[in-house]
Write a structure and sequence with these properties.
- The protein has an 8-stranded mixed beta sheet with strand order 5-8-4-3-11-13-14-12, with helices on both faces. It has a two-stranded antiparallel sheet with strand order 1-2.
- The protein is about 35% helix and about 20% strand.
- It has about 300 residues and is an alpha/beta fold.
- The longest helix is centred in the first third of the chain and has 25 residues.
- The protein is globular.
- It contains 9 helices and 14 strands.
- The protein has one domain: Carbamate kinase, CATH 3.40.1160.
């Protein structure tokens, strides 16, 4: 099974199709899924998006609620000092699957036709736990089929299945990587990573009121910032997006905040997707001129 098929113009099943250009993948991590009530806020965000664009379809990749993965690890260690990796991964997966079900239920409560998929339906396969992601395979058929029936599809991040069919985790920040792989495999127009800060800033906006939003970064800029300690987006996810030339939009739930586009090059002030203007300035120079400090969202998968 190939890792990723090339982008397709549309997804065909019988006489129906979903245009790939109208599929967006969004990732919701533990930094924004902080309480049970936050799932209602996430559902409202998605419902408003879909209402604003009747042709758009969304795939939501979700992490466990903030702190749940660590709590599950502590639970495992109270039972067994050295838990088996397969059993631990299975226990961890319950956090993501609860998130999938919660968000799907909240979407349905708001009138959104949403489908929930489990880790085996998501279609992401790796050889074994800890294997290089470049050896992974992605079968998009279940997600594509669900998109033909529903406007929104909710899937777990952080998780894959291994060669024997067991659940395997992708490591910290793995939901960013899951979202990038799914978006690239679907040929989606973009991948949006929803964080608790509205994109990249010149300094931590929670500590510095004069921090400036960086509206545009190249992958090289974002990787350099990750190496400097700002892991707002998982490094492996940035590398994967660069490999497949997949535009990333790092943003918050705040529709008024511009967020940060991360792309291969600095383009002129034209739209990459959805009519969003992109600035031509060199962000590398802007970063060098600012007193950059680490901006990192809360721990999440």
């Amino acid at each position: 099974m190939p890792f990723l098929r090339g982008p397709e113009k549309s997804v065909h099943t019988n006489t129906r199709e979903v245009e790939v250009a109208l599929i967006a993948v969004i990732k919701l991590g533990g930094s924004v899924l902080t309480t049970p009530a936050s799932y209602q806020s996430a559902a409202t965000f998605i419902a408003q998006r879909l209402a604003a664009n009747a042709a758009e379809h969304l795939v939501a990749v979700v992490s466990a609620q903030n702190g749940e993965t660590d709590a599950l690890q502590r639970e495992a260690q109270t039972i067994c000092a050295g838990p088996d990796e397969a059993a631990l991964d299975l226990l961890w997966s319950t956090g993501e699957l609860r998130s999938v079900a919660r968000l799907c239920l909240h979407l349905q409560a708001q009138g959104v036709r949403a489908a929930a998929l489990d880790v085996r339906q998501t279609g992401l396969r790796i050889a074994k736990r800890g294997a290089e992601i470049s050896t992974a395979a992605f079968d998009s058929s279940a997600i594509r089929s669900a998109l033909l029936r529903r406007r929104a599809v909710v899937v777990p991040g952080f998780l894959a299945t291994d060669a024997t069919g067991n659940i395997a985790t992708l490591g910290r920040g793995g939901s960013d990587l899951t979202a990038v792989i799914i978006a690239a495999g679907l040929g989606a127009s973009r991948c949006e990573l929803i964080k608790d800060v509205a994109g990249y800033f010149s300094a931590d906006p929670r500590l510095h009121s004069n921090a400036k939003n960086l509206p545009r970064l190249s992958f090289a800029d974002a990787l350099a910032m990750a190496d400097a300690g700002c892991e707002l987006v998982q490094r492996d996810a940035l590398l994967a997006a660069e490999r497949w030339d997949l535009p990333l939009l790092v943003r918050s739930f705040d529709q008024r905040a511009a967020g940060t586009w991360v792309t291969r090059t600095h383009l002129s002030a034209v739209s990459v997707v959805s009519g969003v203007p992109l600035l031509a300035n060199s962000t590398s120079q802007q970063i060098a001129e600012e007193n950059f400090s680490k901006v990192q969202s809360a721990d999440e998968n």
